[in-house]
Fold this sequence. Notes:
Order of helices and strands: EEHHEHEE
Structural class: alpha+beta
Number of helices: 3
Strand content: 35-45%
Radius of gyration: 16 Å
Strand order of the largest sheet: 1-2-5-4-3
Low-confidence stretches: none
Distance between the termini: 39 Å
Shape: globular
Amino acid sequence: MHVLRGDSRIVGPQPTGRPAQSADSYFLAAQVEGTRIARHEEIPGGVHTELAEALGTPLTGAVEELVSRMPTPAETELLHLPPGTPVVELTRVIHAGERPVEVTLWLFDASRHRFVYEVPID
Length: 122
């Protein structure tokens, strides 16, 4: 069993009010039972602070995968996309040690986002 937290976000003062992205996060229910995560409450300090506290261990890293593609009809409707607009799907898996503890799936209107990553060189 898992817990889902999801939302659609409107980014910036958009005259159209079109959502620029959607996000759904998944957690194992047993790991977040009784927390503000499971109750879908606002969390001061953010979800990751609450998750680390619930687990009793720090979150240690994340792996992200970005895929650019054309949207499904349902995704076109969700983001109110003009015809021919691609999306970027981002999947992030957060770990505590070797254990995956959260999976978040984002869907972005590709015409309205730029992704910039900093990669440390050891």
